[in-house]
Amino acid sequence: MKSFCWRLPDAAALSLTADVQLRRPEVAAGICGIRYGYSPRRMRLLRMRLTVVGIAGDGNVRRSKKKVGPCYYAVEDGSVRNDDVAERSGNKAAEVAVAAAATVVMGVGNRVLYKLALVPLKHYPFFLAQLSTFGYVIVYFGIMYIRHHAGIVTDEMLSVPKTPFVVIGLLEALAAATGMAAGAILSGASIPILSQTFLVWQILLSIIFLGRRYKLNQLLGCFLVTMGVVVTVTSGADAGNLLKDGGLFWSLLMIVSFLLQAAGTVLKEVIFLDATTKLKGGSVDLFVVNSYGSAFQALFICLLLPFLSKLWGVPFSQLPKYLKDGAACFLNVGTLSSGCDGAPMLPLLFIIVNIGFNVALLHLLKISSAVVSCLASTFSVPISVYVFTLPLPYLGVASSLPTGFVAGAIILITGSLIYGWTPSNGSSSASFS
């Protein structure tokens, strides 16, 4: 039984709904103060209905049904007002919606600009991948340094345990290695199909490690979003044959790659949740998570370079020359700049937008969940398919719109609406965990 500490006005008589009366000599109306000790993580709404009972001058009880104003109560050192809860909930939903929309826009830009960046660097895709991996470490740490001097990143944030970041770096490096190995064998059309297992892994891992529960409408919405992407990407093709042509082993390896990516994402969510406790209600800055995660990922990528370079068709002994030639093409200088039209503008645009996409994705994960961030990222796939049908520079003839694009888009949007739909109190609240 939790304890309550009541602070009553000197002249008041209060009657609770449980017919318990507290009497004072005189009548006083006003705002009551309630302090409520509460230990679990989640705040629960405390609601009490109070009725003022006055005392007449002759000692007889005078029943006055005057309503007391809104009560304040303290929850874990924070003062909260009952009628502000709904407003805060609405603001939270609006913040998540704006962050999700920004993630979708950045995701579309990321996919389109990656395709454009490979126009000048078509012979050096491995160089672009390594430039992204190691360049982001410098960018993220530079931003974190500036935010630390501005007081946004505190010393307590920097002192959080680094072991989870080591695990994140290892998971993302292994995901890159397995994804490259499988991607070199599988057809391009089969990869978007297999990538939908990422959402499945997100749900399963969040249930196992976060104890999260999902309602039936959320699971149905995720399923429809996945099917919408598959219909959009594979319309006019036999999905079964696409997967069969790549071989069962390589398909399973690609699925393992998405499992590793999902595990890294859920672990980031665990870091944010744990930081709320360790930082006494605060939260770790997302650039701290990005900086240390990228640093350890780059470390493990270095250890895997001989294996990764071979997957890209570059012998490890020739890797220094390959990187030097790739840098010359990226800068569009020297004798190797022939055929590098669009550099360095297009690769730089991709890097900038990719950083923005990663930051937007992590911010969305921080304020919502890994599943919501995954849904927002997934939503950008069909939009990107449509953008590639437009006359974009450097890409030549635009692609034709897939025959099942409209049907797939309708399924995807329907799934998103179903996922975000909140059943009424009278509806079934069945959930799965």
Automatic annotation (TrEMBL):
Upper lineage: Eukaryota, Viridiplantae, Streptophyta, Embryophyta, Tracheophyta
Chain segments annotated as transmembrane: 96-114, 126-146, 166-187, 193-211, 218-236, 248-267, 287-308, 345-365, 370-389, 401-421
Gene name, Swiss-Prot/TrEMBL: LOC101501340
Domain of life: Eukaryota
Gene Ontology CC terms, in alphabetical order: membrane
Subcellular location: Membrane
Main location, first listed in the record: membrane
A Pfam family this chain is assigned to: CRT-like
Assigned keywords, A-Z: Membrane, Transmembrane, Transmembrane helix, Transport
Keyword Transmembrane helix attached: yes
InterPro entries in UniProt: CRT-like (IPR013936)
Name of this protein: Protein CLT3, chloroplastic isoform X1
Family statement: Belongs to the CRT-like transporter family.
Topology term for the membrane: Multi-pass membrane protein
